[in-house]
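Q: Protein A?
A:
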Amino acid sequence: MKALPLVFIGQSLIMAGVYFTSGRLMTAQLAEVYARAGMGWRTVVVSATIFPLANFLFGCAFAHFTPAVVSPTMIAMTVVTQILFTVMVPGTRPGL
């Protein structure tokens, strides 16, 4: 499972970008950034920096490993990173 770190980091970057765009990533530390930059600017920043890096990592995973290994790993890491971000980021847990 050598593809696991590439895919995990890539999925984590995607989730971090989504949470940054919505203003929920590290709200206390990035409060000034969220106050100054609207969602449109945050989307541009994430689209120009974080998402290309994540796609590069996914490309590396597919270049070095077969799709039969990378595809299930990507599905599993998507679920894992969504669960981790939901638990770690305040205000994103669904009410039970």
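Q: Protein B?
A:
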Amino acid sequence: MKKTALVSFLTATLLFLLYHGLWWFCRRYQIYWPLDLNLPGFFMLLVAYPWSSLLFSYGREMTIAFGPEGRQIAHAVLLSIGLGVNCAAIACLARGVFTFFKVKARTSN
């Protein structure tokens, strides 16, 4: 159970950081970024919901504290951690439900 949570946490965190890094690189060096490639980012923000709403509600304060570039880095790191935590919770929940029904199916025979 612990390994499932750790693997899903690290996978989701690194996936979001890689996606955000690629997006930032393309914007910084004016490389063409099709609008269709924004969909995975919106999906990741949706899965990281409680974290994303809190961070975006304090955007102005983070800009004052860290500056525009520091705010973007803080958003990327905190959202990736939030996405990782949510994916780890989903993986543990799915694993627990699967184990529950597997054990229940064995006892009913």
